[in-house]
Amino acid sequence: MRRSLATIVVLMSLAIGISGTAYGACANASGIFSLNVTIANSDLEECGVFGTNTAETFLDKFKQSGLSSIAGITYSGTEITSISAVFNSLPIQLAFPNQGATGSGALLTFNIAALGISQTFNGATRDASQSLLVDYLKKSGVIGQIMKYQAQNSPFSPIAGPGGTIPTMVSGSFNENFNDTATNIAGPADAAAAAKLNGYTPNLISASTVYSSLNVKDEQVNFFALPLSYTIRNDIDPRRQLVISVPLAVTDTGGAKSYSGGLGVSYRFPINDAWTITPGVKAAVSGSKDLATLAGVYSAFLTSTYIWSMDNYDVAMGNMVGYVKTMKLSVGDYSADPGINSTVFRNGLLFSQPVSLSGKKLSLEFSIIDTRYTGGSFYVDNTQEFGIALGTNKHAYSARSFFRVGLSYLHGKDTNGVTGNLGFWF
Prior knowledge:
The chain is α+β, with helices and mostly antiparallel strands and 426 residues long. Helix content is 18%, strand content 50%.
């Protein structure tokens, strides 16, 4: 975690250039992180470009050997140099505008126009000037502002983008009380009592796998999650259930990996035979050395599930309102809080019909889910999902075990893809 924050600081201290004709003189590089380098050698102006999907590779290019390796330029550490970078959607600019490695040649300018930041640093050498910039970044809160900007302007934010910590937290909180267990989650009180009397109310362990393959703004994003949970049924009324969840996930964005893990607690209250409400809270940590991000997130949510039971099918309606917010994390000398917060609404309808396959009674389900984030903190601020699933008995008050396998299609801004999931409760 400390290395992730350190990477952000070092990258910000190096990645960047003077705006103007120098930037426009180079062709644009592809990649989540890209840079355009302009070197003034005597009367000649040289230009080179570089792009990558990982921050660490990006960082390597700012060493003297890295800059020297960029085709089209010659750099020895004393030339007038400007570097214009796009840091996961954020234009950042840094320059040594004077010739030389010391004195006026060590003057460093640092600008992030989108955040209203303009600073100059003048150490004894260019390395000393960069050290002054690092100290500024540690203490100023700029790192958090950068991550917030990325969440608002890039679909590749490990915090708020597709497959990011917040969308994973929101979908998991809703799905564990709707898609996974909606059908007959409430159920008649007398049936639950009978199930208890017959000894059919053991606690449940859940182990699921979720895999998504998404096309996000022409980049391939692969997401893998392992949601784990333990459900404790109430001795008096088995329909009342305490659910402890541990969501784990890894996301690959064009080769850049990010990781998240969390802990959640919720409690299901049956209001009547058809209606259940579930309040809950979750907290998670997200880290990505490749995307130079580290953040903590917490959430509180309330989910309502209502079932209409017919003779040959069931219809379930799920509605969730939640609040998500990032929190400050400190590791060593580094700290950051992106200041991202949002009220989120996730609503869905599910149609369930009994079917028989090789003599085994199963349930075939069709669902549609809409998710919306308010507050302007997300580049992808709404998504729609269309799903189909097949599973066994899901009577949450009586089942000893059940399974569910499903496939869904997700659509959002610059985002399309499919998700497959397989879950076991035992």
